[in-house]
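WARN no homologs supplied; continuing
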Amino acid sequence: MSTAVARTEERTEDRTPEREGEWAEALGLALVPKADFTEFLDHLGSAAGADGVNPAFDPRHSLLSPDTSFWIAAEDRDGRIASCIAYRTFRTPDVRELIRTMRVFCEGPCDQHSGTLDLVLPEEMPRVSGLLGFPGGLWVRGDFRGNGLSEHMLRAVRKEALGRYPLDWEVAVSFKKITDSPSLRSLYDFERVVPCFDGFFPLTRRVERMALQYSSRAHLVRSLAGRRRASGASEVPGVPGENDGERFVARVTR
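OK structure emitted
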């Protein structure tokens, strides 16, 4: 995969840059960036252990173009997908408005997409604006779990995104049951996690508690330069299907 961490001079000086694709080769995988989200939808719609597709990465519900979004397939030696993860961008004057109007979840027709959300974001939170990255749709095939592939895929998609886009921030809106998990918070490694919403959520038609995770561009670069998972490290449990609220969107899109 042709990937570059933006502004390489920002790498931590006492770290040796990881050779791109080294871990993938060790696992017998090839990383393939893709632009066709119909293929992404078709794969996750039938993949074992997947819980559907977040409308944010579903071409039936969101505006996804090669200029603003992509996904990565980790293909095994037989050309089958062993893992995948998606990434898209939003340009907004304020992430609060993006969430309040639910455009972060679904830009096009969603049966339950109506009205606005009353947010509980802290007043002291900085203005998160400009070009925002949004990762999601992480899935790992059963026979490849237990080797740290989830973190590898997150690092790969973030490196690719930083090479493609002049990102200002990266964000994710997740159920609090996810952000309350120390292992999952460590996996995602966002700079800040704050309460976002607590009430009736139209997309699931029930009361939900949600959190906003966000990182500055500088944090993303530092994180990619400094974090390493030892080879053979255990997979974070529950990631395929729980990532970024994938369980709730499965009920929406099916």
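The radius of gyration is 17 Å.
OK
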